[in-house]
Design brief:
Helix content: 40-55%
Strand order of the largest sheet: 1-4-5-13-14
CATH topology of the largest domain: Pyrimidine Nucleoside Phosphorylase, Chain A, domain 2
Strand content: 15-25%
GO cellular component, one term: cytosol
Number of strands: 14
CATH superfamily of the largest domain: Nucleoside phosphorylase/phosphoribosyltransferase catalytic domain
CATH architecture of the largest domain: 3-Layer(aba) Sandwich
Catalytic activity: thymidine + phosphate = 2-deoxy-alpha-D-ribose 1-phosphate + thymine; 2'-deoxyuridine + phosphate = 2-deoxy-alpha-D-ribose 1-phosphate + uracil; uridine + phosphate = alpha-D-ribose 1-phosphate + uracil
Number of domains: 3
Shape: globular
Radius of gyration: 22 Å
Bound molecules: uracil
Structural class: alpha+beta
Largest sheet: 5 strands, mixed
Cofactor: K(+)
Protein name: Pyrimidine-nucleoside phosphorylase
Keywords: Glycosyltransferase, Transferase
CATH class of the largest domain: Alpha Beta
């Protein structure tokens, strides 16, 4: 087999076999196939696409290129949740404890943030002493004992995806639905879950800016899961504005805790309840979404979900006093208000711009090696649909003195992110569609 023949075959719109895709992925991982050939193949895929079968084959070859985590020593149906990245998305920190309290084991591997999106692992590290590195035995034991553990990704998971994603990033081939779908799903499959709930974001802060593209991506991922024997469903949720009001690591932990107390923002609570309901159904703990929601609401109201977060924090070495009293979480020294210059109604909030502003203040990474400030970030005061007067506060910036030279740029970004109109603005839906193996249900 020769790489050049497979590139030509894909360039001409033909389907590659399981073996041919395996040849490319193995050859590329081992260095036998050079970057320039893999880049040419990725560009051919960008233009020609891949069949559902090819996409599933690519996923499995990438999943098996490194460690495949075997979760079979954990009792019960392990259901994973994956969000495709957004701004202010702290759903894992709410949903993990919530579904664990309802009896679905959560053995979760999460990532760090890069650019305008945050990462769950960074957020959890805002809790003093919290360790995101557990040995595998301890990880399994903790999930068996308390139903919940969240750790960073292991060093050698999906190396083929890592290498290919890096190449796509610099060859303008990221924006290909089969390549994104296989990249995301290879990591989920290697992480070992029996079932997967995907939260595919749509809108200005998301990878996919339009609903149709988001549905296409979700369908591709659900197809992969179904083909490889993992029950998979996807919810398309709004990322046309940040989720909740807080952006930044410690700030998001505080908001997640408030949500677990039943005192969080309603948009965040609702998205968490929807995703968690699907997890309960796939995990066999509820007959349907309505029954699942009733269980989850009871777990919030009784304080059991919050208690489960505390148990995880304790088990992973974190300071549980910060969960009881969020005032003890890291706090920035400076607070600067961004005020409206126009009266009217908030029509749009460019989530990506808000994410970039938070990054400038130190909450996120500009490059993989940037050091982040766990206390930095933004608290929004206005969301889409809210009325606003001239001089009213749109958002508060939280920062520490080393980042003061970024203040002007961050303030400008926040101001520009807000679109204000004279007309009253209807509230946006939080979820737009549900994708199951049976089809697409638009709401
Ligand atoms: N996230 C991934 O993990 N892979 C992609 O290709 C795009 C987003």
């Amino acid at each position: 087999m020769r790489a050049v023949d497979l590139i030509r075959k894909k360039r001409d719109g033909q389907e590659l076999t399981h073996e041919e895709i395996g040849f490319l992925i193995k050859g590329y991982s081992e260095g036998a196939i050079p970057d320039y050939q893999m880049a040419a193949w990725a560009m051919a895929v960008y233009y020609q696409g891949m069949s559902a079968r090819e996409t599933a084959d690519l996923t499995m070859h990438m999943a098996s290129s490194g460690d495949m985590i075997d979760l079979s020593s954990i009792r019960g149906v392990k259901v994973d949740k994956h969000s495709t990245g957004g701004v202010g998305d702290k759903t894992t920190i709410v949903i993990g404890p919530l579904v664990a309290a309802a009896g679905v084991p959560v053995a979760k591997m999460s990532g760090r943030g890069l650019g305008h999106t945050g990462g769950t692992i960074d957020k959890l590290e805002a809790i003093g002493g919290f360790s995101v590195e557990l040995g595998q035995e301890q990880f399994f034991r903790q999930v068996n004992e308390i139903g919940l553990a969240v750790v960073g990704q292991s060093g050698n998971m999906t190396p083929a995806d890592k290498k290919l994603y890096g190449l796509r990033d610099v060859t303008a081939t990221v924006e290909s639905i089969p390549l994104i779908a296989s990249s995301v799903m290879s990591k989920k499959i290697a992480a070992g879950a029996d079932a997967i709930v995907l939260d595919v974001k749509t809108g200005s802060g998301a990878f996919m800016k339009t609903l149709d593209d988001s549905i296409r991506l979700a369908k591709a991922m659900v197809d992969i899961g179904t083909q490889v024997g993992r029950s998979t469903i996807a919810v398309i949720s709004d990322m046309d504005q940040p989720l909740g009001y807080s952006i930044g690591n410690a700030l998001e932990i505080e908001e997640a805790i408030a949500t677990l107390r039943g005192e969080g923002p309603k948009d965040l609570e609702e998205v968490c309840l929807i995703l968690a309901s699907h997890m309960l159904v796939l995990g066999g703990k509820a007959e349907n979404e309505e029954a699942a929601r009733a269980i989850l609401q009871e777990k919030l109201a009784s304080g059991e979900a919050l208690e489960r977060l505390k148990m995880m924090v304790e088990a992973q070495g974190g300071d549980t006093r910060q969960i009881e009293d969020a005032g003890l979480l890291p706090k920035a020294e400076l607070h600067v208000e961004v005020k409206a210059e126009k009266r009217g109604f908030v029509e749009s909030i460019q989530a990506e711009e808000i994410g970039v502003a938070a990054m400038l203040l130190g909450a996120g990474r500009e490059t993989k090696d940037s050091v982040i400030d766990l206390a930095a970030g933004l608290s929004l005061r206005k969301k889409i649909g809210d009325p606003v007067e001239v001089g009213e506060v749109l958002a508060v910036l939280h920062l520490n003195p080393p980042f003061q030279d970024r203040l002007e740029e961050a303030s400008r970004k926040v101001k520009e992110a807000y679109g204000i109109t004279d007309e009253k603005v209807p509230r946006r839906p939080l979820v737009f569609a549900l994708i199951t193996p049976e089809g697409v249900r638009r709401f």
